[in-house]
Write a structure and sequence with these properties.
- The protein is mainly alpha-helical.
- The protein is built from 5 helices and 2 strands.
- It has one domain.
- It is about 65% helix and about 10% strand.
- It has a two-stranded antiparallel sheet with strand order 1-2.
- The longest helix has 24 residues.
Length: about 130
Amino acid sequence: GVISTFVSYVAKMATRRFEPSLGASGAIMTVLAAVCTKMPEAKLAIIFLPMFTFTAGNALKAIIAFDTAGLALGWRLFDHAAHLGGALFGMWYVTYGHELIWKNREPLVKAWHEMRTKNTGKGGGGRSN
């Protein structure tokens, strides 16, 4: 949500359209793009048209094309920049971000545990084993 709202405000500053943005749809787009990137061959359907199915990868491409056109043509119905920012962040997270974040968390976790064990030895309210 934070990334999609940031992209939305950058686009609004660039186009000098200062309209409010909620950011919820950009956050939902992040999750949708992450799932579609993780499972591109999953079959999807629109609830009102269940007889038409399509893959998650094709759905993501169509949504990105729609929002890119909306941003380029200046459509104001949706916050297209927030949707694109969310989609790109979701795709980046599944492709690279998860590995970068979880592999590099070890030093932070070690520092946290060292800090906790130092405090428990000084009568800081830690539990005894």
